[in-house]
What does this fold into?
Amino acid sequence: MNIILTTIGRKSGQTRLHEVSAVRDGNDYITSGSNGGAAKHSQWYINLAANPQTRVKAHGRTIETIATVVTDEQEYKRLWQLLVREYPVYELFQRRTSRQFPIVRLSPA
It folds into this structure.
């Protein structure tokens, strides 16, 4: 599913909207900062790394969320498999770069 992720610009302080691919994991949304396999992180990821207070709009519903970057190796592998199952193109994107994509958990605030 695609969601609308709202972040706050780390420099501007302005609201930024980003359409990103995500999967559900319980009540949480899981997404990856793949940036299409580019060498640099997605702008939305850089913003939420600076300010984890986010908002998700999905299926006509908007919820306040807190973003956390998944750092546990086993959890990362499990969630990566969920993402790849839904979006196989992530594997292609990962082959384009040596950068490990961050996986982000968006949990209801």
